[in-house]
Each structure stands twice: as structure tokens, then as C-alpha cells.
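subagent[fold] <- orchestrator: predict structure for attached chain, return C-alpha cells only, no commentary.
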Amino acid sequence: MCFILWGSTFSLQAHTVDVIIRRSAKEDVAMAALASRPQPRAVQSQVRKEWLELLDELFDDITAWAEANRWPLDTQHRYIHEKAIGRYRTRVLNIKTPNGILIAEATARFVCGAGAQGRVDLYAFPSLKRVLLIWTGTSWAIRYDSGVWSRRAWSERTFTKLALDLTEAP
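subagent[fold] -> orchestrator:
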């Protein structure tokens, strides 16, 4: 019996851990191979479409949560080019919290890491602190720059706390 919690594997039997780690490593190799070469247009288009839908949903949530806190928000756009899915346009959110500016910016659909299927960065000024939002295939997980995964589920409450903590001066 094993349990997987935010990228860490806990097991009642040691051999279960080995199987899961090996499978994750194989998935990482497969993901890296997929990301390193252009895909057929139909595959590119479908994967890009699904990724953009996820980003739109995430950025819509962040926008709504910032507005609920009465934090001014500015939306800009940027282009990202990934070999596997081509070029796409996505939003960059600049949120003015009481402590400073928080920026939410998509990084890539194809990223390395066990279970990682996309990444969005949340970073702040003037503190220069950052966390990574990692799409696991079913939900957004929070990973700190130190490599530690947060146990908090991605939600409005978590976003608000992160936004205030990140923008707080050191």
C-alpha cells in the first residue's frame, strides 16, 4: 500500500516506493523526449488547446480572487514558444497587494519533475520571493523555490495567504 502526496511517496513496503520512483523517472524521460521534438500539428494543436484552457481557468480564478480582495489588477500578454506545441499567447497578471506587486506568469507546459505537466510562476516585488504552481494532471500544486511542496490545496484562501506572504518585505 502506498500514498502519494505532492510529489513525495510514502509506503508501507519499501519495494512499492522503488516501483513508483522508477515509473516516475520513465515518465520524466518520456516527457523530455516529447518536449524536445516537434509534434504533428494535430497533437500540437490539441495539447496547446488543453494547456491554454487550464491557464485561462487558473488566471480567471486568480483575477476573481484578487478582485474579491479589492486588489488592483493589470493584465498583459506574452508569447511562449515550446518545441512540442509551438507558439502560444498567454496572460501575465500584475496584482497590487497591500504589501507589493504579485506577478502570475505561465512558464511552460512541458517541464521536468515527477508528475509535473505544466508550470506557472508566482513572484513578488519588492521581496523577490517566488513559488511555482505545478499542474499535476488533476490539480495545481504549490512548490517553493527550496524544493519543498506545500500541503495546502490550491484555493482562494491559499492564494490570498501566498500573495500576502510573497509580497511581504524580507
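orchestrator: received. Logging for downstream: The CA atoms of residues 34 and 129 lie 31 Å apart. Strands lie at 2-5, 8-11, 73-82, 86-96, 101-108, 119-125, 130-135, 140-144.
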